[in-house]
Amino acid sequence: MAVDIQAPPSVLAASPAGRDSDSDAEETREWLEAFEDVVRAVGHERARYLLHKLIEKGHEKGVKLPFSASTPYLNTIPRSEQPEYPGDRALERRIKSLIRWNAMAMVVRANTLHDGIGGHISTFASSATLYQVGMNHFFRGRGEGGFAGDAVYFQGHGSPGIYAQAFLEGRLDEHHLENFRRDLAEGGGLSSYPHPWLMPEFWEFPTVSMGLAPISAIYQARFNRYLHHRGIVDTSGRRVWAFLGDGETDEPESLGAITLAARERLDNLIFVVNCNLQRLDGPVRGNGKIIQELETAFRGAGWNVIKVLWGDDWDPLIEADDRGLLIRRMSEAVDGEFQKYVVEDGAYIRQHFFGRYPELLALVEHLSDEELQKLRRGGHDPSKVYAAYRAAVEHEGQPTVILAKTIKGYGLGEAGEGKNVTHQQKKLNEDEMRDFRDRFDIPIPDGQLADAPFYRPPEESEEIQYLLERRRALGGFVPQRRVYTGPTPVPGDDTFAELYAGFDREVSTTMAFVRLLTQLAKHREIGKQIVPIVPDEARTFGMESMFRQFGIYSSIGQLYEPVDARMLLYYKEATDGQILEEGITEAGSFASFTAAGTAYATHGVDMIPFFIFYSMFGFQRVGDLAWAFGDLRGRGFLCGATAGRTTLNGEGLQHEDGHSHVLASVIPNLLTYDPAYAYELAVIVRDGLRRMYEEREDVFYYLTLYNENYEMPAKPEGAEEGILKGLYRLPLADLGLPEGAPRVQLFGSGTILRSALGARALLAERYGVAADVWSATSYKELRREALECERWNRLHPGAEQRVPYVTRVLDGAAGPVVAVTDYLKVVPDQIARWVPNDLTPLGTDGYGRSDTRPALRRFFEVDAENVALAALVELANRGVVDRSLPAQAVGELGIDPEKPNPAKS
Ligand SMILES: Cc1ncc(C[n+]2csc(CCOP(=O)(O)OP(=O)(O)O)c2C)c(N)n1
Ligand SMILES: [Mg+2]
Question: Closest by alpha carbon to 647, among 905, 851, 867?
Answer without folding.
Answer: 851
